[in-house]
Amino acid sequence: MAFVVDRLLPADLDAALALSTKAGWNQVAADWQRVLDLSPEGCLAGRQDGRVVATAGLVTVTPEIRWVCLVLVDEALRGRGYGAAMFVQVLERVRRSGTTAVGLDASDLGRPVYLKQGFVDVAPIDRWTGVLRPSAPPSNIGAFETRSAEIVAALDRDACGGDRGPLLRHLVAEPAVRTVVSPGLGYGLYRPGRLHGHIGPLIAANDTVAKLILDQIRHAAGERTVSIDAMRTAENAALLETAGLTVARRLTRMTLAPARPLLMGPRIRAAESFTWG
Question: For burial by CB atoms within 10 Å, which of 10, 150, 158, 233 has the most?
């Protein structure tokens, strides 16, 4: 049975979602659509006799940064080298892009593969889950919901040192996404997921702002569990434990050598996701 790697097409999105659902991932259709909308050239499908059985992606996070994501093989077909074949194609696209600022968030299963391909460890990153509980202290700092992508993009550029504008504009415009802003101090995005609602990115000038944004998101999430991906620091652990969350998965942020602290500024309290860094 032939295995071929080519472009992931709009007609393949249902098959891609079925793969991630079977793997127990949190993606919904909008997550796959977002990747295809923003980085169509980097979306890859592995086909066995025409059927999508594997995926991989290389998305453009900023003009300078690319992110490897959605590396997935049908569980029934693992061990045949399909994942390695997908990753070779991703690396070819890295070479074509000309960038050396390439990151990914690796599971323990994927990390040895990435090490062999020239990626190096940067820092641990964790996925936290749970039901948010009130954590914001009394404060005169305000927060409100907005559909202004420009407010969000400006706050993000200041924290990241790069322009994630296209991604943020897409997210803010999506009907199911809630955007909470503390003017001049930070913002947080909340969107539905298959298993949990998902929070990220979360940018905050300090812990008080981060707690306020999480408390506003709590009203949108209600009693539904949420997930949030955050670099493993004492500050993040204290923030998220206070909010009622616990670590569900432990991964490693890696970059194509040399090690670079991509999307890891002190005000970046949560990643967009493992897909976008």
Answer: 233
